[in-house]
Design brief:
binds zinc ion; alpha+beta; 6-stranded antiparallel beta sheet; 6 strands; about 80 residues; single chain; about 30% strand
Length: about 80
Amino acid sequence: MYNIGLCKICKQGLLEIVKNEKTNKIYICCDECEAEWDLPSDALCPQNGTRGKYGKSIYPSLSEINRLNWDVDIFEHHN
Ligand SMILES: [Zn+2]
């Protein structure tokens, strides 16, 4: 699984890159406070965060993430 760094809101969680199981939309979700963002740039500010907007999430593959051409550093982590 992959993340873009530490959550700026709770300062504990990882900003995980996750994918909605049904729609395949890839977004950012903190694994501690569960704040979510559509865009990684917003997560790093942070601005425009939401909670509970998306349904069940799964982890996308690195190739799926790379297809988005996000202009942020991407780190790998293991639970
Ligand atoms: Zn957080």
